[in-house]
Specification:
The protein has 217 residues and is mostly helical. The protein contains seven helices and no strands. The protein starts with 8 loop residues before the first helix and ends with a helix.
Length: 217
């Protein structure tokens, strides 16, 4: 009996991620706490689909693509809303979307050309920064901090948030923004490095292929 990849447990988690993301987008214009809850829930489930894939031996190409596309659409969708909330910074958000998509998909394509099963697999001879970045705990922390940065910007459009520390005259969303900003900045620097390294890897393969074709002719 053939397996149904669409019903793999990690892929079902992926569908739930898409549904919670759509719910988040629905609430974003008017109901910030609901929107933030469902958005962060969708991102949190991202950690569990990979665990489920390894636990039940249900890794699949479809699941990997579903996971990647959901990640990119989630962040881009939130930044579209932020562009409307902060119109003076539209260009900044547009450039961040471009950097996120360009760096990620160049890395994916570079990995495919090198015959890797996942863009997250980094060989021992790879760039040390990228190798460190794709260590699972580091990757989780960086992605979580990046999403919390955007979420705090989103929530700050509506309110400063509750004050948990009376001796600090700042709401919770300002504190969240302050704590997540260094991770956000670091994440963008890593994305630039990833874009450059992946481009160089693809170009080196092009050079090797052209040399091989010349020798064959």
């Amino acid at each position: 009996m053939s397996e149904n990849v669409f019903l793999f447990i990690p892929n079902i988690i992926g569908y739930i991620r898409v549904i919670t993301l759509i719910i988040s987008f629905y609430y974003m214009p008017t109901t910030p706490l609901y929107a933030a809850f469902f958005y962060l829930l969708s991102n949190l489930l991202d950690a569990f689909d990979g665990l489920a894939a390894r636990r039940f031996s249900q890794t699949s190409g479809f699941g990997a693509v579903l996971d990647m596309v959901t990640d990119k659409c989630a962040t881009a969708g939130l930044m579209v809303v932020l562009s409307n909330f902060y119109p003076d910074h539209i260009l900044t958000f547009q450039l961040l979307i471009l950097l996120d998509i360009f760096s990620h998909w160049l890395q994916v394509y570079s990995s495919l050309l090198h015959g890797e099963s996942s863009h997250k697999f980094i060989g021992d001879d790879a760039n040390p920064i990228m190798k460190f970045y794709y260590e699972r705990p580091v990757l989780f922390m960086m992605c979580a901090g990046n999403e919390l940065f955007f979420c705090s910007l989103y929530l700050l459009y509506f309110t400063n948030g509750p004050v948990f520390l009376p001796f600090i005259d700042a709401g919770a969303w300002w504190l969240l923004l302050f704590c997540s900003t260094p991770i956000f900045v670091l994440k963008q620097l890593v994305s630039i490095i990833q874009l450059v390294v992946a481009s160089q890897n693809i170009a080196s393969i092009d050079v090797a292929n052209r040399a091989h074709n010349r020798n064959q002719s």
